[in-house]
Each structure stands twice: as C-alpha cells, then as structure tokens.
Amino acid sequence: MSDALEAIPLTGLRAKIGQRMLYSVTHKPHVTLHAELDATALLDWQRRRAPQVLAETGHKLTLTALLVQLVGVALRRYPRINGRVENDRVQLHRMVNVGVAVALDEGLAVPVVRDAERKSLAEIAAELGLRVAEARAGKLKPRDVLDATFTVSNLGPYGVTHFTPIVNPPEIAILGVGCVTPRPRRSGDRWIEVPMLNLDLSFDHAAIDGAQAARFLQVLSLLFRNPESAAGTAAENSEPPNE
User: Fold this and answer.
1) Among 130, 149, 217, 218, which residue's Cβ finds the most Cβ atoms within 10 Å?
2) DSSP readout, 22-85?
3) Distance between CA atoms of 213 and 78, rounded to whole angstroms?
4) In the beta sheet, which residues pair with residue 161?
5) Please, what are the averages of pLDDT over each run of 10 residues along the chain (243 residues)?
6) Distances in whole angstroms, Cα of residue 234 to Cα of each of 140, 159, 196, 238
7) CB within 8 A of 114, min separation 6: which ones?
8) C-alpha distances in angstroms, 64 versus 30, 93, 125, 183, 188?
9) Among the residues of 58-188, which ranges form H helices?
C-alpha cells in the first residue's frame, strides 16, 4: 500500500505553468543579479501615504503596490529592459505594463497593471487589490493578464530572503522581491540597523547584458532613496500632452 498522502495531477493550470517555465529555462540563457537596497525612505513613504490611500480607495498600500510604481518609473527612465523578445527581435515598448505574480491555492496568476508609470499610488493600490481578489476568485478576464512588459514577484511576505525567479516569456526580465532584513551600518561613530530590501533580477542574457540589468537596479536604487520623486514623475506622465 502506498504511503502517499495525496496525488496531485499535473494538469490544467499546473501543467501550463510547468510547460511555460520549462520552455523559459531551456530556451533563454538566464542570469540573476542579487542586490540589497536601503528601504528606509521607501518604508517611511509607505507609512506616510498608507492612511490617505486607504481613505481614498478602501485598499491597503502594500509594499508590492509601491514597488509597481517605482518599477514603472524606473522602466520609463531606463527602457532598455522594458520589452519582449518576439520573432528573434528584442521589441522595446513605450508602454510600461507591470505584471504582478499572485499566489493561488494551486498555481499562480499574473494580472497586469497597465501604464504603471502614469498611475498614482492610490490608483495602483486599488487596481492591485481588485485584481488580486479577482485572481483568487477565478474571475480575471483574459485582458487582465495580457501584454506585460515586465513582471514583479514578491515572496517577502512568506519570509523568503532571496530566490531565483524565472523569466516569463516573451518578457526580458523579472524582479524577485524578498523580505526586508535589518543590516548593521556605520553612521558616524556608531552602528545602526538599516532595513534592506532583498531584490533578485533575472533576465534573458540573449536580450540584454549584465551591465544593462545592473543599470536598471541602479535607477531603482535612486528611486528607493527618494520615492516621492516617483510619485511626481507619475503625475507628470499622467498629464495629457500640450497641443
């Protein structure tokens, strides 16, 4: 008699995820860059903005929502990593559509925040809250998961520090987000604890090189130090062009 607790068939969504990820790791030369960015200003910005966002939308301002805005602005400022590999060409996009991996009971879904660099924190928080609820209820529409140009996968809430995310084809890159970890840093003549956010950027080395991926992380690091600037950029991007 088998001592197996349960036999879970690799069919349906589970099979599709497996096929897609297997294709990615066998057809794309993966490289992952690991970084730790000072999250002091980012967490302070979240604390200050959270009450207003909750009052405006009824949704919490999560770290993921903050990261979607910052990633969107970073992709606009450094577009070399914002695109897809199609027909043996790297197609860079003007649109910045950030996919967000959402864990389900079996598998995952990746709803897309379109024009992420143009949206306010309140808009992103509300949209993410709605899409996550729809994903877990199985109510996402096909359009909700199409046309991503970059993906964010946050495993920090599960206590994960670092991981190696797999690029979601045909995208060029994916950002894995770990938990915030206190690290000792020297400040003058004393030591202080600094909250560091663990990031893992996997990319298709056929589409971009390591230095290009590293530059994107540098742009993101600058936004971490001054997240208000990302909010200002989003407001500027949302304004219609002058005629």
Assistant:
1) 149
2) HHHHHHS-EEEEEEEEE-HHHHHHHHHHHHHHHHHHSS---HHHHHHHHHHHHHHHSGGGSEEE
3) 10
4) none
5) 73 86 92 96 96 96 97 96 93 95 91 96 97 95 95 97 96 97 88 95 97 97 93 67 42
6) 26, 30, 25, 6
7) 95, 97, 147
8) 24, 23, 9, 21, 33
9) 63-77, 121-136
d(CA 243, CA 236) in angstroms, rounded, equals 16
What the chain holds in terms of domains, given with CATH numbers, is 28-229 (3.30.559.10)
Q: Which of 27, 44, 147, 209 is catalytic?
A: 209
Q: DSSP 3-state assignment of 208? A: coil
- For residue 14, the Cα-to-chain-centroid distance in whole angstroms is 22
Write down the pLDDT at residue 1.
52
The alpha carbon dihedral of 222, 78, 152, 66 has a sign of positive
Decide if 148 contacts 99 (C-beta within 8 A): yes
Pairing state between β 173-187 and 30-38:
unpaired
Q: Does the annotation mark 205 as catalytic?
A: yes
Task: Give CA–CA dist 106/60, Å, rounded.
Answer: 25
For residue 115, count CB atoms less than 10 angstroms from its CB and return exposed for 0-12, middle for 13-18, buried for 19 or more. Answer: middle
Q: Which amino acid is at 25?
A: V
Instruction: Give the separation between CA 131 and CA 134, rounded to whole angstroms.
Output: 5
Give the 3-state secondary structure of residue 242.
Answer: coil
Task: Tell me whether residue 162 is one of the annotated catalytic residues.
Answer: no
